[in-house]
Amino acid sequence: MKNIFFLLFIFCYTISAQQIAIDTLEIQNLEEVIVSSVRAKENLPIAFNNISKDELSKRNLGQDIPILLNFLPNVVTTSDAGAGIGYTGIRIRGINSQSTNVTINGIPYNDAESLGTFWVDLPDFSSSVENLQVQRGIGTSVNGSSAFGASINILTDKIAEKSFFESSNTVGSFNTIKNNFKFSTGLLNNVFEFSGRLSKIDSDGYIDRASSNLKSYFLQFSYKKNKTLLKFLNFGGHEITYQAWNGIDLLTLENNRTYNPSGLYFDLDGNEKFHENEVDNYKQDHFQFHWTQSVSNNLTSSLGLNLTNGRGFYEQYNENGNEDYITRKWLDNQFFVFNYNLNYTTANNNLTFGSTYSEYDGDHFGETIWAQNSGDIQFTDLFYNGNGLKKDFSNFIKTIYQLSDGLSIYADFQLRKIDYVTIGSTSNVDELAVDKSYSFFNPKAGFNYNFNNENKAYFSVSRAYREPTRSDFENNLDIQPEELINYELGWQFNNKNLIFSTNFYFMNYKNQLVLTGALDDVGTPVRENSGKSFRKGVEFESVYSLNKKFVFSGNLSLSKNKNIDYISNFDGQVINLGDTDISFSPELISSLNVSYTPKQNLNINLLYKYVGEQFLSNTESSVSKLDSYMTTDINIIYKFESPKYFSEVIITAMINNIFNKKYVANGYYYTYDDTWSVPGAVTTIEGTGYYPQAIRNFLFGVVLRL
Questions:
Q1: DSSP letter (8 states) at residue 120
Q2: Across-strand partners of 669?
Q3: Which of 499, 493, 500, 502 lies closest to 459, judged by CA?
Q4: Which residues of 123-191 form beta strands (DSSP E)?
Q5: CA 594 to CA 612: how far, in whole Å?
Q6: Does residue 539 contact residue 556 with C-beta atoms inside 8 Å?
Q7: H or E segment and range at residue 522
Q8: Do residues 433 and 470 touch, judged by C-beta distance below 8 A?
Q9: What is the Cα–Cα distance from 356 to 396, expressed in whole angstroms?
Q10: pLDDT surpasses 60 at 8
Q11: Which of 140, 174, 247 is nearest to 668 (CA)?
Q12: In terms of Cα–Cα distance, which of 158, 162, 294 is closest to 226?
């Protein structure tokens, strides 16, 4: 806490140290300061994409943010329910969610203990996003944990100058219905603004019973005067989703691809039944406060405070011999964050200092709520009860210095200190006693060179460390932090009609925490240290404007992702498999968008996506190979000209997978040793599970704005 008070003193001192001059900055610029410390700028030697509110709105019909980012370079998205609503995920360069950093207004959003990102906890959040940036590679330093291969930085809605009210409504396949209402008072007395959103999304899902009942809200109160911007935000969501993370085997995939085994049990007569409440039920509320101050024309500062409260459970029907019982596994947590950023800009230099302290306190416990033929179960007892406490303190300083008209150099240094302690039991470990402290130094450097107005090149080298998660320790108490050295080399050409860029990358790992393909007892992907490994590849992007009506854009990613001298246990022996493909890392990913605007108020987009074959394991077992797939979507947007009763009416239609492809975007792989079939011999049995994605489906939306 001393660190917090010290930083507060610095912040207040910098505000009072200079006289506030006449406001020369637009309020929008002050709002950008909130995320500027974690964002890459055009002269940074980093591969990134900026996505605006307008771009998000084209396909924002209720699906989660990962699905809306599906057509970015080197991206693979997944959906447990098969249709992009409910539990969804995103992998960038094959890197799993635990190693992808996500911030909202500069505040870390990753769950501090699992390091995962659960987008389902913030349904329809894209309706409150002003813009976002996706960085590939280590990227620039962020508040809190270091990005370890990819990052997503989100800025929420800016202040609306004028008042408005709008309603966005969607209907679609699988009984999907979305309704939201947004409003803003506009600037009152040119100083205050209050805005908000309420959303409700329901969907049965493509997979049987993979239903989603999602509610969310977003409230924002803003004050701006002269060079001061204050924002208080309260947003959150409540999700109730029927579990679909069990997947299905290959035979079921071929014969009944929408089958969902979750909740399966047999009644006393031997009839197949499904537990009606086999659901994940979780509520999360965020409270953020941001104070941005322009101290002078050169100096701005930003302070952020965050409190996140989360509580919920998932319910399971369990059978064990003649015993039947229903359990609930609970998580009750609080996450506090304080961050402070100071930016100093001159004609030749942009210098940023950032500091973050966070504290996570999470209770994990399980209760039995019903039992049959289980007389020894005491309903007042918790069958496991534990706690995790994590403290994270980080500081960074970075600079972009313009050496000449064409050349700028970049340097970035982050120090991070983590303390993590767990006590008590888990659902599969009698005593999880972790007491770890880590100190990480994450340096980054590079340069950007503009040859002329149309051509620029860049190079950077970065180093990062990232700690294991709670579930990593459950599976192996001796698991080690992962280490990465990342090299990026890029070139971009930009003229009136064509933008073309290429980026070469080499990511050299030590103890990379790769997915084994297996899932633990709560559906969390299991990870292990793979020793030495690397990812290398090239990413191409282009946008070509043929004329005012036709725009072509696309990207292509080619990569090699290898574990070096990978060791595995198979048939009772320890085997060196040599260099093997890293799990969930396709070598080829591409997308294409053809945009046709026949007239000003009509836009038609044809979107194509290809993902090459990949392995669900690190052993390159043929059993674990996931086939390549391709999908084609069509997106139509029509704006009514001068509608009679509204200021704006927009109709959006999306037909996904128009060629009705049956494909699988995700799965899992497991092994177990058979020691009884052949006496004295050990035979490794392999198995896989698959998550089928929806065949042809549609979403149709209407936005009415007053």
A1: G
A2: 688
A3: 502
A4: 129-137, 149-156, 164-172, 176-184
A5: 21
A6: yes
A7: none
A8: no
A9: 9
A10: no
A11: 247
A12: 294
Which residue has 């340097």 as its token pair?
411
How is residue 143 written in tokens?
Answer: 């508040």
Q: Tell me, what's the pLDDT at 380?
A: 62
Q: How far apart are CA 68 and CA 213, in angstroms?
A: 20
Q: What does the alpha-carbon distance between residue 127 and residue 199 come to, in Å, rounded to a whole number?
A: 9
Residue recorded with tokens 């459950």: 474
404: nearest Cα among 343, 447, 445:
447
**92-110, pLDDT tens digit by residue?**
999 988 889 999 999 999 9
Distance CA 455, CA 397 (A): 29
Distance CA 66, CA 88 (A): 7
pLDDT score of 7: 44
State the Cα angle at 392 between 387 and 396, rounded to 5°: 170
Give the helix, strand, coil percentages of the chain, each rounded to 5.
Answer: 10, 60, 35
Contacts of 447 by beta carbon, 8 Å cutoff, 6+ apart? 45, 407, 408, 409, 410, 458, 459, 460
DSSP secondary structure string for all residues of 237-290: EEEEEE--TT-B-HHHHHH-TT---TTEEE-TT--EEE-TT-EEEEEEEEEEEE
Indicate the helix (H) or strand (E) that contains 321: none
- Helix or strand (DSSP H, E) at 348: none
Please give the domain boundaries of the chain with CATH numbers for all domains.
2-363+382-511+523-558+573-622+633-705 (2.40.170.20)
Amino acid identity of residue 366, one-letter, is: G
Task: Give the residue among 32, 26, 17, 36 at the shortest CA–CA distance from 231.
Answer: 32
Evaluate if pTM is beyond 0.85: yes
Sequence-distant (6+) residues with CB within 8 A of 673 are 572, 682, 683, 684, 685
Helix extents (H) in 590-637: none
User: Which residues contact residue 376 at a Cβ distance below 8 angstroms, ignoring those fewer than 6 apart?
Assistant: none
pLDDT tens track for 118-136: 999 999 999 999 999 999 9
The answer to whether 201 and 62 are in contact (CB under 8 A) is yes
CB 257 within 8 A of CB 248: yes
Q: Residue 418: how many CB atoms within 10 A of its CB?
A: 21
* pLDDT single digits (tens) 510-559: 999 999 999 887 788 999 999 999 999 999 999 999 999 999 999 999 99
